[in-house]
Design brief:
Blueprint: H1 2-6, H2 9-22, E1 31-32, H3 34-41, H4 45-57, E2 61-63, E3 69-71, H5 76-100, H6 103-124, H7 131-145, H8 152-172, H9 178-192, H10 196-217
Antiparallel strand pairs: 1-3, 2-3
């Protein structure tokens, strides 16, 4: 909350545009016209250029020189590469987190899982009106899982790659139903038992199946 309170207008607009890309309100391949964005986000063209260049460095936007900017396209190859990187980072951080996690970590994890499980039950009924909240809670659970790893850099790298992975899930509305919910419960159980070996196996299945389900849901 303190960070949000002290953020600049530019930071606020950056977060809004970034969220609009991740959650599909700005579509893959969409041209980002500065004059139009200026009106929509109520900020200056110079600020928008800085923001879009920042997003380009994250791989969410393509800077095309004199031709301007566009939202990065999506492809099967890109999704598979993102998933492999996510698995590498999360597996490494998970093992360290399980080793060093204390009761405060357990509390964060249980709380994050409760919110996610609640939204998953809602999704299972066919109600997708809260899909953005569902994916936010998914992000929070996986961040909580590795939050005791002791490395802010690793956490930030994971958050960035997870957001790219999340973008594919949002665009394909890729929800695997009770199977995914059971995997999240199994990850929680393994974490509370400090069973990193089992958690890594579950995570491999969880991410791999998520990729295949997203690809089956929509051609990329």
């Amino acid at each position: 909350m303190e960070e949000l309170k002290n953020e600049t207008i530019g930071d606020s607009v950056y977060r809004r545009i970034r969220a609009d890309i991740i959650f599909g309100r700005l579509k893959p391949g969409q041209k980002l016209k500065l004059d139009r964005l200026k009106e929509g986000y109520a900020t200056s063209v110079s600020t928008l250029r800085e923001i879009l260049n920042r997003l380009a460095s994250e791989g969410l936007v393509i800077a095309e020189g004199q031709r301007g900017f566009e939202v990065s396209p999506m492809s099967e190859a890109d999704l598979r590469e993102i998933a492999a990187m996510r698995l590498l980072l999360e597996t490494h951080a998970l093992e360290q987190s399980f080793s060093d996690g204390d009761i405060e970590w357990e509390g964060r994890l249980v709380s994050a899982h409760h919110k996610l499980a609640t939204m998953e039950r809602r999704m299972e009924t066919g109600d997708t009106s809260g899909s953005e909240t569902w994916k936010q809670y998914d992000w929070e659970f996986h961040q909580a899982l590795i939050s005791a790893c002791g490395s802010r850099l690793l956490m930030d790298m994971h958050a960035t790659i997870f957001d790219k992975y999340l973008r594919y899930q949002v665009m394909t509305l890729s929800y695997r139903g009770s199977i995914a919910a059971k995997e999240h419960q199994a990850l929680l159980d393994a974490a509370l038992k400090r069973d990193a070996k089992t958690a890594v196996k579950i995570l491999n299945v969880h991410i791999t199946a998520g990729v295949e389900h997203a690809l089956a849901s929509q051609e990329l």
